[in-house]
Amino acid sequence: MAEIEIDGTIYQADAGDNLLKACLSLKLDLPYFCWHPAMGSVGACRQCAVLQFKDQDDRHGRIVMACMTPVADGLRVSLERPEARQFRAGIIELLMINHPHDCPVCEEGGECHLQDMTEMTGHTFRRYRGKKRTHYNQYLGPFINHEMNRCIACYRCVRFYQGYAGGRDLDVFAAHNHVYFGRHEDGVLENEFSGNLAEVCPTGVFTDKTFSAHYTRKWDLQNAPSICAHCSLGCNTSPGERYGTLRRIVNRYHGEINGYFLCDRGRFGYGFVNSPARIRKPSILGQQAVGRQAAQERFAAILKSGENVIGIGSPRASLEANFALRELVGQERFHPGFADREGALIKLMLDIVQQAPVHLPSLREIEQADAVLVLGEDVGSTAPRLALALRQAVRNEAFEIADQLKIPRWQDAGVRDAAQDAKSPLFIASLAATGLDDVAAGVYRAHPEELARLGFAVAHRLDAESPAVEELLSTADDLAATIAQALREAKRPLIVTGVSLYSESVIEAAANIAVALARLRGAAADVSFVAPECNSLGLGLIGGGDLEAAFQAVDEGAADTVVILENDLYRRAARDKVDRFLAGAKRVVVIDHIFHDTAKKAELVLPGSTFAETEGTLVSSEGRAQRFFSVFPPAGEVQDSWRWLLDAMQVRWRHLDYITEACASALPVLQPILRAAPSANFRIEGMKVPRQPHRYSGRTAIRANVRVSEPKQPVDEDSALSFSMEGVSSGCPPSLNPSVWAPGWNSNQSVFKLQDEPGGQLSGGDPGVRLIEPKVNAEFPWFTRVPGAERKLRQVAPLYHVFGSEALSMLSPPVAERAPEPYLALNPADARELGVGAGDAVELELAGVTVRLVVLLKAELAEGLLGIPAGLPGVPWFAPLSEPGSIRKAEA
Amino acid sequence: MEKPLTKNFKADGTPATLEEYLQSGGYEGLRKALAMAPLEVQQTVKDTGLRGRGGAGFSTGVKWSFVPMGDDAPRTKYLIVNGDEMEPGAFKDRLLMEGDPHQLVEGVIISAYAIQASTAYIFLRGEYRLAAERLSQAIGAAYERNYLGDDIFGSGYDLDLYLHTSAGRYICGEETALLNSLEGRRAIPRAKPPYPQVSGLFGKPTIVNNVETLCNVPHIVHYGVDWYKGLSKTADAGTKLYGVSGRVRRPGAWELPMGTTAREIIEEHAGGMQEGYSLRGFLPGGASTDFMLPEHLDIPLDFDAVTEVDSRLGTGTLILLDDKTCAVRFVLNLEQFFAQESCGWCTPCRDGLPWTVDLLQDLVEGRGRLEDIEQLERMTGFLGPGNTFCALAPGAMEPLQSALKYFREDFENYIAKKVRVAHG
C-alpha cells in the first residue's frame, strides 16, 4: 500500500497501480475514455488528466495522465484544481468538435459514457464553428451497427477486438482526424466476441443491432440478474425487457467468471424468448387454446391414470424444475435427460472432480494459467468465453517479460511493445482447426482416440507410474514430451477437456495428466471440464437413470406415462428410438417453451417459461451454483415449469424457495445452493429490490389504450425482486442486482462503483457458490484403458459451431444467420476414395435418417473421420464415433 | 580540416566513391574503433559532448550508455539511423547521404559496434530516391570489402545493415513511431518508459540516431576528442550543417563550426536577403521551432544559446520570414502540415491541430473574430509539452506561439482592418 494525497486528503492506495484505477477504487469521479480495466492504459485520450505536484512545496504542479502515472508513496495530486478541470473540459471540447449532436436519436443515449463524461467535465458551450467531419458507415453483419460519425477515436474497439479477442477484421485506418475504425470493406465481423464492441465503445459507434430491431431506452428496460443459458460456463447476464418482449442481453460483471465480456452466442441468442416457435398456450392432442385450469386437470388425470409414470428432466432447465419433476415421479423413475452416453461421461467427470486432486478453475483462474493443454475440446465453439480466457492466459509470458523490464502490467502498449509475440505455451489437441490455433505453441489434429493417446503419453512423461502408450508415432511422442515439459515448468498449469467428443478415453487421459501434475506439485491440479449445457453439471449431481433406461422401461411396459421437462428428445437420441418411445408410451406430457418435434407428439403440452420468465439455480462447469431470476412475469397461460409440476403434486409448497430448500436437503452435495442468492424474504429497509430503474417511464401509459387506470404491478412471491421501480437497489447483494447504474454514471462503466476495485470482485462478493472443492491429498487410481493404435475404417465425428450447435440460440434469427449450412467434412484422401469433391452434395445415412450434405474438404481432419456439424438444425442426431450408414453422391 | 562532414562533396553532385572515401581517410575510424573496446568507443563519443543532430540535442554518448552491455545483455540489439528527414525546411541529411554515403555507413558500423548491435537499419524518407540508390551501392560495396557482414576485418564482430525506405509520414521521424513503422505496425509513438535503449525494436535494446549525428562518429574516433572539440566556436562540439531557405540570394546548406551566428550564415553564406526584401524573423531549426528576430542574429546557433531566447536549435536549417510575407499565412501553412501529419493517436493533437488550422484559415479569409486570437493562444498552452502523447503538437505550437508574441499585429490586422494580407 502507498499513502497518497488527492486534493489535500490522504488515501491508501495500491502501490504500483495506476493513479486512474486508484482514484476509481476510491470511488472518485475522474473521467476517462481509452483506459479499460481489462485492457489497461495507453494514454491516448488524455481525458484523465490531473495536476501532479513534485513535492509538498510545489504549488504549480504539472498536468499528467492519471492512467499513466504509477501510484507511489508520497504521490500528491489534484483532481479539482482549475488547471486540471479546464484541461479535462478542453479534451471533451475537442472530442465534441466532430461528435454529432444526435443523442435523441442515438441508441447509446441514456447509457453513453461520452454523455456522462461531458456532463462531468462541465463542457456545455460549442466554440468550434467549422463543419463536422463525416464518415461512411459499414455493414458489419447481423449483430453490430456501425455509426462512425460518432467516433471519438478512443481506440478501445480495436484494442479489444484485436488485442484482447484476437480478431483480425477490425482495424484502424487513415490518420490525423480522419482515423477510421472498421473493416477493410463492408462485411460480417468474424470474431465471436464482436458484441462486446457495443459495451466497449464509450459512445454510439458500435451498438447492438438486435436491440435496434425493438429498441427502447436503458431506463425503460426491466432487468433481472440472469445466467446465460447457451453453454455451461455460467456467464452472468442482465437481460432487459419491455412490453413483454426480451429486448437485449448485456454483460453483468462477475469477477470470477465473465468479467466484462460475453460471447456473441450468449449476447445475441435470446431471440428464442420472443420466437414464434414459443408454446404460449396449453394444448391437448394438438388442440390449441386450452385454458390453464383445463390443462392442470388433464395433467392431474394423466398422472392419476398412469400405471407407472417416469420423468425425463433437462440439463438446460434449473435444478428446481428438475427436482420438482423428480419429486413428482419419484427418484427411481427420474432420468436427467442427457443424450446417449453423455450422462455416463458427465458422471465420469464428476467422479474425477469429486475424488481426484483436481481443482475446477474459474475463468479468472484460467486467465492466470501459464501453460495450457486443451485436450479434445473445441472450446471456441462449445464454451466460447473460456476460449477468450485462454487467449488472456497466453499473455502471461508477456507480463513476465514486462515485470523483468519493470514495465507495469497495466501499461498495455508498453507490455505489448516489449513482449512482442512472446506467449505462454498453449497446446491444442483437436479434431480440426480451432479458433485458438493462432496463439498455440503446438497443435495436434487426430482421431479422438489418438488425442487421448497423446494425453496418456503426456501423463506418462510427467509420472512414469501412469500407464504408457504403445505404438505412439514419434511426432506425437515428441509433442507429448514438449507438452509435459511445459506443464512441469509452469507456475500454474491447466488442462482443458470436455465431453463434446463423447470419448471416455479423452477425459481419462486428462485425469491422468491432472493426477500426475498433482503428485508433482503436491497441490490439486487445475482441470477445466467443459460440460455441454447450462445445467449439465447440476443434473449430473442430481443423477438418475439414463435415457436408454427410460426407453427400455417403456419398451418393456414398465412405464406407460412420460413427463418430459424442457427437452427435445430428438436432439438426444436416434430418431427411430425416440419415435418408438413416444409411440410406445401411452401418455406423454411435455412442459417446455419451444414447440419442438417431441412436443408435437405429446398428448398434453404445457407452456413453460424461458429463463427470462422464471427463476432457479444452475450449476456451471466450474461447479458454481448460481441463481437466475425472471426478468418479466410470464404472459398468459405460460408459467414456470416447476409451477406446473407443483400444481400437479398439489403440495403446499408454493414458492421457489421451498423447492430449493427441499432440493438442498435431499441432496447433500447441493446443500450450498441455498447460499447462491438471498431468499424471497430478503428485504432492504423492508423493501424489495426493483427490477425497473428509478427512471422507468410511462408505466401508466403502457396499457392506456386499453384502460387509463394503472393495474397493480404483478407480485413476485418467488424472489426478493419486484416487478416495479419501487424498492431499494442501493446496497443490494450482487446476486440480486438487476443492472448497473450510479449517480453521474449511466453507462456500464458505472460498475466500478459496485466493485472493490475496477476489475476486482463485486463488493459483497461475486455471486454463486462453488459446490466442489478439491481433495488435495486424495489418492486417485490411474486410468489404465489406453486406447490402441488401430482404427475403424470410417467414423462420424461431431464438429461444433459457436453459431449452430446450440439449439436455443439457433431460434434467434441473427445467430441462425451466422450458422453454416449442413456439411460433411472430409479429409481430401477420403473424398477421393468416395469419389466426391468440395461442394458436391452427398446423401448420408445418419442413425437411420438420410440427410443431404455438402462436402467440405478439411485437410487437417484425420483420415477416416466424417466431420458432421453437431446439433445443427437439419442434421439429425447421430452417435459420435459410430460407423456411418451409406454415403452416396446425390443427384444434382 | 575544418569541414569533416562535407569534405568529400563534389561540385558535380556525384557521390564520393569508395576509393575517394578511402583516400580521404575513410574507414580508418572503423579500423581504430574495432581495436578499441566497445565501451571505450562509447566513452570517446561521450567525451566529445556530441549532441543529437535530429533536433533534440541529447548527448549521443549518454544515450548509448543506457544500452545493456555484456554477455547477459538481450540479443538482438539494434542500431537505427533516422533518415526520415521530413521536418519542413530541413534537407541537411539528404545532402550527407547523397554526397558521401560511405561516411554514414562507417558511422553506423562504429556506432553499432559501440553498443554491440548486430543489426542496423537505415530508416530513410521514401522520397529520397537518390539517397536510397547511393546508400544501397555504398552498403553493397561495404559488404564486398567486409566492412559489413560477418567477422568485420577479422575482429570477430558481425553486423548486418539494411536500408528501409519509409512509406512516408512525418511522425515516423519520432523515434518510437519509427520503431512501430519498422515493425510493420501503425506509425504511432510509444509510451516511455520503456525507453528504446532498453526495449525498442522488436522489444530489444535499440539506439535511434540521426544521420548527421552518426556522420560525426568516424571522424571523432579517427581524429580524437580534442580535435573534435576544437572544431566548434562554443562549448557545443563539432561542426553543424546549417541551412537557409527563404528569400536570400543563395539558399543552401553549409557545414560550419557549431555556434556560428545566424548573421554569418544568412549574410555571408546565403548572400544576404534578396533585393527588396528585409528580414522579419526566422525559425532556426525547421518548422517546429520558435521564431527568432533580427535582434537575435548575433546569437551563436548552438543548443544552449538558442534556448535562451525561447527557441531551439532543432535541425539548424533556418526558414526566413521576410517583410513581404504574412506571418499568419506562414504559420497557417505550417499548421496545415502538422495537422495533416498528426498520427491521430492522442486527442489534443488529432483534434486540436485541425481546429488551429481552421482558426487561422478563418482569420486570413476574413471570418476571424477577436476571441479567436485568444483561442489560438490558449491552444499553444493546451497542446504544449506534457499534455500530448509525443512532441509533434508541442512542436507545432512553437512557431504559432512565437508568431503571436512577435507578429501579433499581423493577426489583429486581419480582424481590425479586414485586410486580405496582413503584412507585405
Polypeptide structure, described:
The complex is a heterodimer of chains A (892) and B (424). Chain A has 892 residues and is of the alpha/beta class. Helices cover 27% and strands 17% of the residues of chain A. Chain A contains 26 helices and 36 strands. In chain A, strands 14-25-24-23-15-16 form a 6-stranded mixed beta sheet, with helices on both faces. In chain A, β24, α22 (597-600) and β25 (604-607) form a beta-alpha-beta unit. The radius of gyration of chain A is 28 Å and the shape is globular. Chain B has helices at 18-23, 28-35, 38-48, 60-65, 92-99, 101-115, 129-144, 175-182, 211-223, 225-230, 262-269, 303-307, 327-341, 347-364, 370-382, 392-406, 408-416; strands spanning 78-83, 119-124, 160-165, 206-210, 239-245, 252-257, 279-283, 317-322. In chain B, β5 and β6 (252-257) form a beta hairpin. Chain B is of the alpha/beta class and 424 residues long. The relative contact order of chain B is 0.12. Chain B is built from 17 helices and 8 strands. Chain B has 3 domains: 18-229, NADH-ubiquinone oxidoreductase 51kDa subunit (Rossmann fold, 3-Layer(aba) Sandwich), CATH 3.40.50.11540; 239-322, Roll (Ubiquitin-like (UB roll)); 327-415, NADH-ubiquinone oxidoreductase 51kDa subunit, iron-sulphur binding domain (de novo design (two linked rop proteins)). In chain B, the strands form 2 sheets. In chain B, strands 3-2-1-4 form a 4-stranded parallel beta sheet, sandwiched between helices. A 4-stranded mixed beta sheet of chain B has the order 6-5-8-7, covered by helices on one side. Chain A binds chain B through residues 42-47, 49, 62-64, 68, 87, 90-91, 94-95, 97-98, 127-130, 152-153, 155, 172, 174-179, 401, 405-407, 411, 413-414, 417-420, 422, and chain B through 169, 179-180, 186, 190-191, 193-194, 198-199, 202-203, 339-348, 350-355, 358, 362, 367, 375, 382, 386-389.
